[in-house]
Amino acid sequence: MVNKWGNVIYDEFVRPVERVVDFRTEISGIRPRDLKKAKDFRVVQSKVAELIKGRLLVGHALRNDLKALLLSHPKVDMRDTSECELFLRGERRRVALRHLAAEFLGVQIQNGEHCPHHSRHEVKTASAAMSH
Q: Are 107 and 122 in contact (CB under 8 A)?
């Protein structure tokens, strides 16, 4: 997570509650060794809930992140590039963040395996796209 200035305020790996059968490393960038010092799910869930309470969330497909942490957030306090009318395609189809970045900002992101710690760039991309 980053604040409105793009500074990282929380960046943790979460110990999975269930056994992971496929890390999809080529997409997620996560490897089993990354989880050796991962924090307990409930600890991370509680911290994220505390950090987002009363805040405006900006990102792409935020519902996926919230769902993964079993959290909710008022829709009125969310700015989600995956749901922004300006970026929807025919029949309200959502567009991947990497395509929005390329089309609107001329930036290449998420090319093959990407490091989870580069999520700050994705947040900045989503934020910049929303300001267009």
A: no
